[in-house]
Amino acid sequence: MSNWSAKNPYMTKITECYVLNGEGSRKETRHVVFDLGDSGLDYKVGDALGVLAENPANTVDLLIDTAGWDQDHMVTTHNGERTIWEALKKDFEIHRVNKKFVKSLTEKVSSNGMRITVKMIDRYRESVSGQGAGWMGGDSEMGTELLPSIPGDDPVGRVEHLTTDADAMEDYIWSRDYIDVLRDFEVSYTPEEFIEVIDKLKPRLYSIASSHDAHPGFVELTVGIVRYSHHGRDRGGLCTIYMADEVEVNKTDVGVFMSPTKSFVLPEDKSIDIIMVGPGTGIAPFRAFMEQRVHDGGSGKNWLFFGDQSSKTEFYYKDEIESWLDEGHMYRFTTAWSRDQEEKIYVQHRLKEHGAEVWEWFERGAYFYICGDKQYMAKDVHRALIEIAIEHGGMSEEDATHFIEKTMMKEQKRYLRDVY
Ligand SMILES: Cc1cc2nc3c(=O)[nH]c(=O)nc-3n(C[C@H](O)[C@H](O)[C@H](O)COP(=O)(O)OP(=O)(O)OC[C@H]3O[C@@H](n4cnc5c(N)ncnc54)[C@H](O)[C@@H]3O)c2cc1C
Ligand SMILES: NC(=O)c1ccc[n+]([C@@H]2O[C@H](COP(=O)([O-])OP(=O)(O)OC[C@H]3O[C@@H](n4cnc5c(N)ncnc54)[C@H](OP(=O)(O)O)[C@@H]3O)[C@@H](O)[C@H]2O)c1
Question: What whole-number distance in Å separates Cα of residue 160 and Cα of residue 163?
Fold first, then answer.
């Protein structure tokens, strides 16, 4: 047994990190392989891997430059004493501004208020009269009370608006990091004040896409890279950008740990049939399940529902799936390519088309697994299951809901979910 954890991660290397999408795809989904070396780490299919990322060096440099700090200034963080540069690289999330920081601006804009007010007054004078700072007798501070308010431009008013209107706050922080906000409000923080209000860096979890029996000494993931651009700078998700852009294959040390599951497991009885629904990166644990079922050699049938935007660009693990089908390991493979035709086709539509057979499988005791998007897909698939129970099981709405949510999910524990 090993004692690696989020606080004490095993430092290893990524040995492969390649894009699974075909040319012309709107997405970037990668297959990422980690070496488990001499860690003693083991895992079962269904488990997740925890990955500890670092912030990009150029973002750390730009933040330190914008804030006007000395990069060698020593600070104490939850991980000990280190330079502010190292702290911002490894200990904190700096890629998205948090609400606590925006709230902390209240004190900053009022204590810096005079400097900003004078600037704003001068700007206002220019805008209304074209006369610049000479307007109203030259002394900007004297004129403060006489000026009308400047809607949307007054930092004190703006911070008050952000801290009292939840939607405005969400909207503001969605597209910004600390560099944007420091520039926006022209405020200054000491390194100590700054690290007091920002968030500690959290590990990210990924459903494991390999069976350890099929890939001894390695663990593999299917990762959707989060990229976007705001306020003139390209940016994205902390951990996915780290794995895709920052880590050098076979070179950079990356911290990992296992996050075992108790519930998202294969049936112990290998003769039980399973239905797996995993569109997009949701396919990850089902590649692992298939590898394990092939390795274990049971008689249970495997039916995979997979989909993404297009068969031309998002057919992840196509060769492996085709060989499982050819060799009879996969009984059925049902696809839902959402953008290969005019109308959207999703996995829940395919489930309903095959409703009679899905119901037969349920009656024979099949397990049902779902992985991927929690917000929309998992809810729609859940609804489709209830509709299948109504249509093919002849149940009332109430009985069908009870069967799916209580009997299958809670009592029999054969409707299992890994959604995020
Ligand atoms: C149990 C579990 C298993 C998982 N398995 C997988 C898996 O197999 N594969 C996988 O890819 N992921 C998986 N995830 C998700 C994964 O943990 C991360 O959440 C994901 O990779 C994003 O991490 P990140 O650090 O790159 O992004 P973060 O820095 O955490 O940022 C992600 C956030 O960025 C925001 N965002 C997105 N687009 C924009 C935009 N245009 N503008 C502004 N903000 C935006 C969204 O709020 C989003 O939540 C899993 C999660 C869990 C809990
Ligand atoms: N919690 C997090 O931090 C985090 C981070 C990253 C990703 N995620 C989630 O993980 C999901 C996986 O991302 P992904 O890129 O692999 O795949 P995805 O965005 O889920 O897309 C996979 C397929 O599902 C389709 N789809 C869209 N809405 C659907 C619905 N309501 N029901 C069924 N299918 C639907 C998509 O079609 P169209 O695109 O054509 O509509 C596409 O064909 C994301 O959607 C996201 O919600 C969460």
Answer: 5
